[in-house]
Specification:
single chain; alpha/beta; Rossmann fold; Isoleucyl-tRNA Synthetase, Domain 1; 3 domains; 16 helices; binds adenosine monophosphate; binds zinc ion
Length: 487
């Protein structure tokens, strides 16, 4: 491979060559979901984007520690320490314990990401499992003079911090403008400055999720958990920190401030941000009421959809846009993605069965080089896919006898295509999971029928055979046992 991996860094606003801090190893932290509601397709887009980065880094041979947290406490409705606790509110609404809400939506999140064939992270820490670390970090920030106590809560002193450091380095916003445009919210008189944010929040009597601290009973602020957990598992300085672009101005800006105030260094070399999935040009979000659940997309059960699309079609659709561009959900784009995916997967299957000749009439090396250059250019999946389509075209031309391929090239081509499509892009044939399940089910039915026969219950065994025949599955009996075929 001639090119080196380059990644766009929100902090430097430049694309630069990626060199990990520790040779051969990559530490990557991605902000995980707040598990108080079902994951929507926008959330899925962000995690699919980071999944491709994780997979590509693994493919390049790095040992990757991918940490993605679960926010299961401390996230209030507004991102600025106002409003009700998201978990408590949902718990009241669904008449469940906050931890039942956390469990329910963590399971949903994992199921959605499994359907999209994303790899699990190396560590998935929870905010509630790291209260001690968050208290310790708050103590250090207090001791270093960048926070103050006010009525049992601890606030980060943004004004003091910004006298020494650039508080808005990540968002590149003008601090004075930001100050002028920030209102003081009701109930926030405890704060000295309008931009101050909570590290620790005193629990009101009715607040369910609460922990003992040196400042009384309370709970940690949302931004603090990511600072505490990333430094615990990846060190004070690590390679990549990611999340959706909407996290830049507040969550990640505050994370950087906390890390500097505590560890005297900003945490990540590369700050990587994914752009938003939109619907008719508007960000998909729960609060705007335009969110799609992945299950609605799979079933087609949504007023804006003509029919359903499979998880792999949706994954492919997402990879057709660069992760830093917006992507608009539409029936037409999904239909095109369905066709494109089928063509690509078909080429991956076909390539192993191609007839070979003495020499090749095209350069497999050149195609490989183009695909790798695209992926090395800030994980440019749409350009990589365009080159993979050229590769698929060659597969078909060789199959039709219009181009030829040497045995050695065929070997390289087959390995390359399958590695990139399956391992890096995470696209797999749709039926796989379904087929396995059907086989499992059929083996169970066949053994139940054998049981019935042994008990001379021929009415049941014939019933099973006839019913299966009616839905197009034929059972064949032989000396070795029974087998089935789908008609
Ligand atoms: P949340 O559970 O709201 O904290 O969001 C989890 C992740 O999904 C964050 O990194 C968000 O930036 C990201 N996200 C939320 N909405 C969208 C969207 N419409 N498109 C892409 N990513 C999103
Ligand atoms: Zn975070």
């Amino acid at each position: 491979m001639n090119s080196e991996l380059k990644i766009y860094n929100t902090l430097s606003r430049e694309t630069s060559i990626f060199k990990p801090i520790h040779s051969g190893m990559v530490g990557m932290y991605v902000c995980g979901p707040t598990v108080y509601s079902n994951a929507h397709l926008g959330n899925a887009r962000t995690y699919i984007s980071f999944d491709v980065m994780f997979r590509y880094l693994l493919h390049l041979g790095y040992k990757v520690r991918y940490v993605r947290n679960i926010t299961d406490a401390g996230h209030l409705e507004g991102d600025r320490d106002e409003g009700e606790d998201k978990f408590a509110k949902k718990a009241k609404l669904e008449q469940l314990e906050p931890m039942e809400i956390v469990q329910k939506y963590s399971l949903d999140f994992h199921e959605v990401l499994r359907q999209f064939n994303t790899l699990p992270p190396s560590i998935e820490p929870t905010a509630t499992g790291h209260i001690i670390e968050q208290i310790e970090m708050t103590k250090k920030i207090l001791a270093n003079g960048y926070a103050y106590e006010s009525n049992g809560s601890i606030y980060f002193d943004v004004e003091k911090f910004s006298k020494e450091f650039n508080y808005t380095a990540l968002s590149n916003r003008n601090l004075d403008e930001l100050l002028n445009n920030t209102r003081t919210l009701d109930g926030q008189e405890e704060k000295k400055g309008r931009l101050d944010f909570a590290l620790w929040i005193k629990a009101k009597p009715e607040h369910l999720m609460r922990w003992q601290s040196p400042w009384g009973e309370g709970f940690p602020g949302w931004h603090l958990e990511c600072s505490a957990m990333s430094s615990k598992y990846l060190g004070n300085e690590f390679d990549i920190h990611g999340g959706g672009m909407d996290l830049v101005p507040t969550h990640h800006t505050n994370e950087i401030a906390q890390n500097i105030a505590c560890h005297h260094t900003q945490p990540a070399r590369f700050w990587v941000h994914t752009n938003m999935l939109t619907v008719n040009g508007q960000k998909m979000s729960k609060s705007l009421g335009n969110s799609f659940l992945p299950s609605e997309l799979f079933s087609g059960n949504h007023s804006l959809l003509e029919r359903g699309y499979s998880p792999m079609t949706v994954r492919f659709f997402m990879l057709q846009a660069h992760y830093r561009s917006t992507l608009d959900l539409s029936n037409d784009a999904l239909q095109a993605a369905e066709k494109g995916l089928a063509r690509l997967l078909n080429a991956c299957k076909l390539v192993a069965h191609l007839k070979t000749s003495n020499s090749s009439t095209f350069s497999v090396e050149e195609i490989k080089e183009k695909v790798y250059s695209a992926l090395n250019e800030d994980f440019n999946t749409p350009i990589a896919l365009a080159h993979l389509f050229d590769a698929a075209k060659y597969v078909n031309l060789v199959n039709d006898g219009k181009e030829s391929l040497s045995p050695a090239d065929k070997e390289i081509f087959a390995v390359f295509l399958n590695q990139i499509v399956t391992d890096v892009l995470g696209l797999k044939p749709e039926q796989e999971a379904g087929t396995e399940k059907i086989e499992g089910l059929m083996n169970m039915i066949i053994s139940m029928r054998a049981d019935a026969k042994n008990k001379k219950d021929f009415a049941t065994s014939d019933f099973i055979r006839d019913q299966l025949k009616e839905i197009g599955i034929e059972i064949k009996d032989s000396k070795e046992g029974s087998s089935f075929s789908i008609l």
